[in-house]
Design brief:
The complex is a heterotrimer. Chain A is an alpha/beta fold. Chain A has ten helices and ten strands. Helices cover 35% and strands 22% of the residues of chain A. Chain A is globular. Chain C is elongated. The chains are: A alpha/beta, B alpha/beta, C mainly alpha. At the A-B interface, α7, α8 and α10 of A face α7 and α8 of B.
Chain lengths: 262, 317, 279
């Protein structure tokens, strides 16, 4: 078996206490461990307050970690800092929930897609635009979108731009944070198909975070179910979905009654 | 007689750039004591239809209809709206519907006082009873609480209790579960179903979520670009959709295809609201479109329980 | 332009017009003043304390100089002082607020507690103390007011940055490994500078008012340079017999201050404007 690309062990995230005499709050992420092998997709499901967002933010080095380790391609990712951290950030691409918020309203699509390439200095200045057009094309939009701004696009088109930006630096790992939750059903289907195409084309390793178990079932190989900061169920997606060990997981399946569930 | 009878409804905003067609041709019929789902993607006109029923159309919008009746009353002719008396509404964001600086008890009392004029101690008893009826575990404590002290699910229950306090018999629920977690949303839907059976409430469930419709609605209509394209009992509608748009919408759901297989998508965009439509609104995106679809308005088919608008006789049996 | 005026309302538009008129007056002072030489300070003892007339519309002062000419020249000094005070304050306050808000933690603590020390003292009192320590003169006066002024911009800038720093597109840039300097220059500064710019433009009025107050106390601009505050003070000795001496410059200050205040309200009503007024 190959070495996992992302290996998280006993990760604890705790936000600072509110006041001097307040009791320390319960950890937002409580001793979470999991790993993702190259080319695999891990789904993380949970509701609000489950700790899935805190877990993501910790992996993205946006919030400090209390204890535990995160290894990215075998390297100790949490102890990378300064310029080295900035350079290695190119190894992780991120797509967020709402493209209108995660794409700068002031920049053109060309500038948005070029930004990570400029930060990582992976592409020569003269080739930025060609590369941006190429990656945008792979995400299903023609090059004439490059001169537009995010607010001129539909939700699905804007999310394609977010994918293009995330893939611009050829990341090893793609993190998707509710990438279809703000979209209509028919647009969601387009984005899920795009994701499948990109996965084949680039051999992507992905972490897909969502509250929607049905979406995650369609995309992920393995699955974590989180509740109140802890992992309550983990394993192969199909196994968990068809035969959950926790009642809570069954409730997450959605509004249909059990008889309707396959 | 159905409680709601709407046919040929159009809602238009007249602007210097032309007419914005929010709703083009909507038919809706809801029987008493049922939950009717109004399904559609963003821009289909479902929310503005709810606002029209409440008499809350924003300024500048023009409403026209062959009939727009509530309990046999022509709503267009009524000088006063039925909002707050016979029609109530719950929305996606319960926090916005509650006053943040007044306690729940005070807000319940305000509603009850303006609907019936019971003495104070009886109003209090009734408020407690209504809060309990929505399944809130400790009504006494909830009465003393302020909205921010309650969770989203509890806030939504308080809003439902307020709607009951007005004595409304018809409830418009606009995406009532969208802002809630799945587990909490399921409880709110179960509550609405219980109120329909126990109190004879009638509910219009406005949603984009097929799961919501499948789990709690009796009948449903599918909207596309301001048109009702298909109506019928939910189980039948979801199992055997007749209109190509409904078929495409169901095929686009992530559980419609196993992992690794592509989902069916609907190519193209909805027609811009400024555009005048000739023929069928869905024709440019329809995989089954024929020449006639682009020039002639679709035919209206009806069976005993179902109706749909399409040039094809029956597309999927 | 017409649409812009409409959105400001009639009061806002009128105020904007008044401010533009002052600027024009200041810029074209040598052409518009009836007695440019007296505006600069040349005495004209012969016509000492002439009351308003066709020859001297606003009368003359104790050295026989035309008050109207000196009020017009005073606009130059006042507007320059106001603009420079705001510019210097922005130059100090903006970087302080940006850095404090963006980096947070102990950097934020040190910078903002320092800012609080300045804010703890009443602004005018601080300016008076500084001006008397530095001595009178235009540059000292500007410096004294600016020192009591910049903390407001530091606060405003920090508040803007705190909002922007949490925006998903700014976080996205961080996660992509974009450097802090680039993020500030590219994502934060352009957006934050809009409300700050509006606030700064509106603050020119109050700033020149404060500078005039210093001049009134004899701590600002020295004669023979014409300054409204200093003229009001000089005329005070001859009030009420020679009422016109103080009235002309006093009315000039009054009208300009009102115009800035009304325009500020109109801008806030129009689009939310700056989140809080500095004073």
């Amino acid at each position: 078996m190959s070495e996992p690309l992302l290996n998280v062990k006993d990760l604890v995230v705790r936000y600072p206490r509110r006041g001097l005499f307040a009791a320390p709050p319960a950890p937002a992420v409580n001793a979470v461990s999991f790993s993702v092998n190259p080319g695999q997709t891990l789904g993380i499901v949970g509701e609000s307050g489950s700790g899935k967002s805190s877990l993501l933010r910790a992996i993205l080095r946006l919030v400090p970690v209390e204890s535990g380790t995160v290894q990215l391609a075998g390297n100790d990712w949490l102890n990378v800092s300064g310029a080295e951290l900035q350079a290695q950030r190119g190894d992780i691409g991120v797509v967020a929930q709402n493209p209108y918020l995660s794409l700068s309203p002031r920049l053109t699509i060309a500038e948005i897609i070029a930004e990570p390439m400029q930060a990582q200095a992976t592409v020569k200045r003269s080739q930025l635009r060609d590369r941006a057009a190429e990656i945008l094309g792979q995400c299903g939009l023609p090059a004439d979108f490059l001169t537009r701004k995010a607010r001129e696009l539909s939700g699905g088109q804007a999310q394609r731009v977010a994918f293009a930006r995330a893939l611009a630096t050829n990341p090893k790992l793609l993190i998707l944070d509710e990438p279809t939750s703000a979209l209509d059903v028919s647009v969601q289907a387009q984005i899920l198909n795009l994701l499948a195409d990109l996965r084949v084309k680039f051999g992507l390793t992905m972490v897909f975070v969502t509250h929607n178990l049905k979406v995650v079932r369609h995309v992920s190989d393995t699955l974590l179910v989180m509740r109140q900061g802890a992992v309550i169920e983990a394993g192969l997606t199909e196994q968990i979905v068809t035969n959950p060990t926790q009642d809570y997981t069954r409730e997450l399946m959605g509004y249909r009654t059990e008889s309707q569930m396959i | 007689m159905p409680l709601i009878e709407i046919s040929g409804l159009s809602i238009t905003l007249v602007t210097p750039r032309g007419n914005v067609h929010a709703v083009r041709s909507l038919d809706l019929e809801i029987r008493r004591g049922t939950i009717h789902g109004l399904i559609g993607e963003s821009g289909c006109g479902k929310t503005i239809t709810g606002m029209a029923l409440l008499g809350l159309l924003p300024q500048g919008f023009r409403l026209a209809a062959k009939s727009f009746r509530f309990d046999g009353l022509e709503l267009c002719d009524l000088a006063v709206s039925l909002r707050g008396r016979r029609i109530a509404m719950i929305s996606q964001d319960p926090a916005a519907a509650l006053n943040p600086v007044l306690s729940v008890g005070r807000q319940m009392d305000d509603v009850l006082r303006s609907h019936g004029g019971l003495p104070r101690h009886q109003r209090r008893a009734q408020a407690l009873e209504l809060l309990a009826a929505t399944g809130l575990p400790d009504p006494l404590r909830v009465m003393q609480s302020f909205p921010h002290q309650l969770s989203g699910g509890m806030q939504q229950r308080v809003v439902i209790a307020q709607a009951l306090a007005t004595g409304a018999e018809f409830l418009i629920a606009d995406e009532p579960t969208t802002a809630l977690d799945v587990t909490v949303g399921a409880q709110v839907l179960a509550l609405l179903q219980r109120l329909v059976t126990e109190r004879g409430l009638t509910v219009l469930m406005i949603t984009h979520d097929m799961d919501v419709v499948a789990s709690c609605c009796d009948t449903a209509s599918v909207l596309y670009a301001g048109h009702t394209v298909e109506t019928g009992p939910v189980k039948d509608l979801l199992a055997r959709p007749h209109h190509p748009y409904t078929q495409a919408l169901l095929a686009a759901l992530p559980d419609a295809a196993p992992k690794g297989q592509r989902l069916t998508t609907i190519e193209g965009q909805i027609p811009p609201p400024l555009e005048e439509i000739t023929g069928c609104a869905f024709a440019p995106r329809c995989p089954k479109a024929m020449t006639v679809c682009r020039t002639e308005s679709p035919l209206h088919h009806t069976t005993s329980s179902r109706s749909w608008s399409c040039h094809l006789e029956q597309t999927n049996v | 332009m017409k649409a812009f005026a409409l959105r400001l309302g009639w009061a806002g538009t009128l105020s904007l017009g008044i401010i533009i008129a002052y600027v024009a007056l200041a810029a074209l002072a040598p052409l518009l003043a009836p007695y440019p030489a007296q505006g600069i300070g040349a005495p004209n003892i012969v016509d000492k304390f002439a009351s308003p007339s066709a020859q001297y519309w606003l009368g003359t002062d104790h050295l026989g100089r035309d008050v109207l000419s000196r009020v017009i020249y005073g606009a130059r000094v006042s507007l320059t002082t106001g603009i420079l005070v705001v510019a210097i304050s922005l130059l100090i306050g903006l970087p302080v607020g940006l850095v404090a808000g963006y980096f947070g933690g102990w950097i934020d603590e040190i910078l903002m507690r320092t800012t609080d020390i300045f804010l703890a003292l009443p602004a005018l009192l601080l300016a008076v103390l500084l001006a008397s320590a530095l001595g009178a003169g235009m540059w000292n006066c500007i410096l004294a007011v600016a020192v009591s002024w910049w903390p407001w911009y530091a606060r405003l800038a920090r508040a803007e940055v705190l909002v922007l720093r949490g925006q998903p597109y700014v976080e996205a840039a961080r996660v992509m490994g974009v450097s802090n300097a680039t993020i500030i220059a590219r994502h934060i500064l352009p957006t934050a500078s809009k409300p700050l710019g509006v606030q700064a433009a509106l603050d020119v009025g109050p700033a020149l008012l404060t500078a005039s107050a210093l001049s009134f106390l004899g701590l600002g601009i020295l004669p023979p340079t014409a300054d409204w505050g200093q003229m009001v003070n000089a005329g005070r000795a001859f009030f009420p017999e020679r009422w016109w001496y103080s009235t002309g410059p006093g009315f000039a200050i009054f009208l300009l201050a009102i115009a800035f205040s009304v325009l500020g309200d109109a801008l806030r009503d129009r689009d939310g404007g700056p989140r809080h007024a500095a004073h």
